[in-house]
Amino acid sequence: MKIRPWTAVLAVLLLSACSKSPPQALGTLEFDRITMPAPVAERVVDISVREGDTVKAGQPLLKLDPAQTQANLAAAQAQATQQQAALLELQVGPRKEDIAKARADLASAQAQARDARAYYQRLLPLEHDNYVAGSDIDRARAAAGNADGQVAAAKAALDELLNGTRPEQIAQGESALAAAKAQAQAQQVVLTKLDVVAPREARVDSLPYKLGDQAPIGAPLVVLLAGDAPYARIYVQEPMRASVHVGDRMRIHVDGRDQVFEGKVRMIRSEPDFTPYYALIGDDAQRLSYLAEVTLGADAAQLPAGLPIRAELVGGGK
């Protein structure tokens, strides 16, 4: 039987229509982003790099005004020195001059107490003959009692000096010294952070603040892009999710490039990136998408971040 040409063409088209295209996911090219936040709200006094520069680990990037932090550090160090001296005073204990003064105060209080008691004793016999008013007797008795109280207080003060510093006071002094030293150390750390340096080899992506600007605490001073090559951040749709595993190979098609790049899935989220309440069952479940990342090779090193890409699963996954 003779086969007509249009019949062969129709058969090829039917076979092409029946062949199943590989699963695909859309996304963008990304680099690992490193953000250097402002440790304090100070002015930018020096910028050593430009956007797009490649920097090495430890290379200076930017500097903030250190004047206020240096003053805070000096105050914290002075406070630590004061607490050190106070602790030493507690550990050494009372001076001999203080003990001698306490002895003298006790002797003076005892002498006044003896005089007050003697005066009171002289007035008692006169009360029976009505030579002294009762109010005078009461005042003499109160003065004698007050003098005895002064003696007891002076003796307690002397005993306190003789017994030395309590262990609890020394412990409090040690804690106060440790807190002051920690505060000084914290200010020293902040001072070192004012000289912003690159934590690793990367490329400067953004310098949001210019010379003379004052960034608020936590604001990004420098944004770096790290990594030898970008990676593909893709969103895997629910029908494709069961076929994608960590380690699977993928083909990455970059918009504007004819070259196809090979990569491997390094991460895929177990929870969908967006979960509307109605998209958990039925046909609406196909709307769910799962964030995944695909590592690319050295041949993709020159690709810029942000380009849209299309990822195809090689071999249908594991």
Automatic annotation (TrEMBL):
- Give start and end of each YbhG-like alpha-helical hairpin domain: 65-184
Q: Which InterPro entries match?
A: HH_YbhG-like, UPF0194_transport
Keywords associated with the record: Coiled coil, Signal
Tell me yes or no: is Signal among this UniProt entry's keywords.
yes
Position of the signal peptide: 1-25
Broad class of where this protein is predominantly found: other
Where can this protein be found? Cell envelope
GO cellular component terms listed in the entry, alphabetical order: cell envelope
The record's annotation in Pfam families points to:
HH_YBHG
The keyword Signal is assigned to this record: yes
Chain segments annotated as coiled-coil in the UniProt record: none
Which Gene3D superfamilies does the record cross-reference, listed alphabetically? Answer: 2.40.50.100, Helix hairpin bin
Give the protein's recorded name.
Answer: HlyD family efflux transporter periplasmic adaptor subunit
